[in-house]
Amino acid sequence: GDDLVNASLGTLAGMTTLVGGEGDDTLVLTGVGDSFDTTHLASLSGVERVRLVPANPAAAFTLTLDDGIPVGLLDLSALTGSLTLGGSLPDGGTLEIMTGTASVAIGASLATALGGTLVLTPSGGAVGTLDVRAVPESSFLGARQSGDSLDLCLRGDVVLRISGQFQTSASGFGSLITD
Q: Nearest Cα to 77, choosing from 34, 33, 131, 122?
């Protein structure tokens, strides 16, 4: 069935393997500081969602992605401050990040990842800004509407998808900062 495992980062570090079963399994990591590197998730297998609960959700938070991330959804919906994303995407894969009401900044390293789709899903209505100033202008290929989402297409088959940007209810980012 659907399993829910609550743990601290220290508990996760002490595990050699955490295997999810059938269904939709979620790991909830509590007391996470002001940054998190997804290499901490290397011991996971069969866990579909990881919910990170920062000790101070209103503080600035940095998430470093690793291209070997073993989950498809990172839930940061508790965030109300700002979120900076860096690292790299799974090559050819898709990663969804629920961003809460945080403003999000995309780091240059993430924008130059080789292939993959990063889906940003704001929750809690219209939120702050999506800042892509660190992405080199030469990396932008264009933007397109995909259903109710906005796709920012970058070189190397990288797509930044803002889920729900064009929904009729208040959702998505209030503004996009490009320069």
A: 122
